[in-house]
TrEMBL record:
<comment type="function">
    <text>Catalyzes the condensation of ATP and 5-phosphoribose 1-diphosphate to form N'-(5'-phosphoribosyl)-ATP (PR-ATP). Has a crucial role in the pathway because the rate of histidine biosynthesis seems to be controlled primarily by regulation of HisG enzymatic activity.</text>
</comment>
<dbReference type="InterPro" id="IPR015867">
    <property type="entry name" value="N-reg_PII/ATP_PRibTrfase_C"/>
</dbReference>
<keyword id="KW-0479">Metal-binding</keyword>
<dbReference type="InterPro" id="IPR013820">
    <property type="entry name" value="ATP_PRibTrfase_cat"/>
</dbReference>
<protein>
    <recommendedName>
        <fullName>ATP phosphoribosyltransferase</fullName>
        <ecNumber>2.4.2.17</ecNumber>
    </recommendedName>
</protein>
<keyword id="KW-0963">Cytoplasm</keyword>
<keyword id="KW-0028">Amino-acid biosynthesis</keyword>
<keyword id="KW-0808">Transferase</keyword>
<feature type="domain" description="Histidine biosynthesis HisG C-terminal">
    <location>
        <begin position="219"/>
        <end position="290"/>
    </location>
</feature>
<keyword id="KW-0547">Nucleotide-binding</keyword>
<dbReference type="InterPro" id="IPR013115">
    <property type="entry name" value="HisG_C"/>
</dbReference>
<comment type="pathway">
    <text>Amino-acid biosynthesis; L-histidine biosynthesis; L-histidine from 5-phospho-alpha-D-ribose 1-diphosphate: step 1/9.</text>
</comment>
<keyword id="KW-0368">Histidine biosynthesis</keyword>
<keyword id="KW-0460">Magnesium</keyword>
<keyword id="KW-0328">Glycosyltransferase</keyword>
<dbReference type="Pfam" id="PF08029">
    <property type="entry name" value="HisG_C"/>
</dbReference>
<dbReference type="InterPro" id="IPR011322">
    <property type="entry name" value="N-reg_PII-like_a/b"/>
</dbReference>
Length: 294
């Protein structure tokens, strides 16, 4: 069986389980379950602390993991990102009391408190900045107030927590993170990054798993659009809805009219519907896509 690590709690857990369910995989029924088996798809899921998943995957004991890019990099584990999943997005920033740190260069000689020591140490080293890094678990906003550090490095979403602590963001983001699929770095990969077929027979299952998740991502990104238009307006309509390869066009019973079907980006669907209506298209419908393979 393919052995897959899934976050057991936090902002990664719910969306990961939902995506796996949409991809056709059985998920646990109770949050206390640490392991579940999907015999139909020959997959075994292990529900682990998100911060530990990269280490388990790098060890080779598990084949695949879903975790955060930040947690992967911070762990220093010998695993690599294969597929970004688009949820649990976050941005890492330095923050300090207003007027105390103007930019990245001002971090030299400072003490920085963070829960992500690996990320911060790597970022400082990459910019040639000599500073001390103090590891703290959990919220780090009070570290400056209590004199543990002059600067913190943490996830910034709305900035409300920083403002409440009397802190300002310093400089550009350290990194942007989101949920990702990871594999052990030791796996053999094709030039495109997809696992190649191995003698142990596991790689086809890995490829199938990745295809399913990619299908969910596409299904969430596109909608199917159907509409009717006159033949003389078809070229203009097709220009608005080119589809992936080409739209499907079928003649209608009324002569001079055709029915068109094409996938369109969901974020642009309302604008496209307006434009189609303006050129004379009618009966314009959109429907959700629940799964697909490209």
């Amino acid at each position: 069986m393919l052995r897959i690590a899934v976050p057991n709690k936090g902002s990664l857990s719910g969306p990961a389980a939902e995506m796996l369910h949409e991809a056709g995989y059985r998920q646990r029924r109770e949050s206390k379950e640490l392991r579940t088996v999907d015999p139909t798809n020959e997959v075994e899921f292990f529900y682990l602390r998100p911060r530990d998943i990269a280490i388990y995957v790098a060890s080779g004991q598990l084949d695949i993991g879903i975790t955060g890019r930040d947690l992967l990099i911070d762990s220093g584990a010998d695993a690599e990102e294969i597929l970004p999943l688009g949820f649990a997005r976050s941005t890492f920033h330095y923050a300090a009391k207003p007027g105390t740190v103007g930019g990245l260069a001002d971090l030299k000689g400072k003490t920085i408190a963070t829960s992500y020591e690996g990320i911060v140490a790597g970022h400082l080293a990459g910019h040639g900045i000599d500073a001390s890094v103090v590891h703290l678990d959990g919220a780090v906003e009070t570290a400056i107030q209590l004199g543990v550090a002059q600067v913190i490095a943490d996830v910034v979403e709305t900035g409300t927590s920083l403002r409440n602590a009397g802190l300002d963001v310093v400089g550009e983001p350290i990194m942007n993170s989101e949920a990702v699929v990871i594999l052990p770095r030791a796996r053999t990969h094709s030039p495109g990054g997809t696992p190649t077929t191995g003698a142990d027979g596991e790689e086809p299952k890995v490829r199938q798993f990745l295809r399913r998740l990619q299908g969910v991502l596409v299904a969430r990104t596109y909608v199917m659009m159907d509409y009717d238009c006159r033949v003389e307006q078809l070229e203009k309509a097709v220009a608005l809805t080119p589809g992936l390869e080409s739209p499907t066009v079928s003649p209608l019973h009324n002569e001079g009219w055709v029915a068109v079907r094409a996938m369109v980006p969901s974020k642009e669907a309302q604008r496209i519907m307006d434009d189609l209506y303006d050129i004379g298209a009618r009966a314009i419908l959109t429907t959700a896509i629940h799964a697909c393979r490209l």
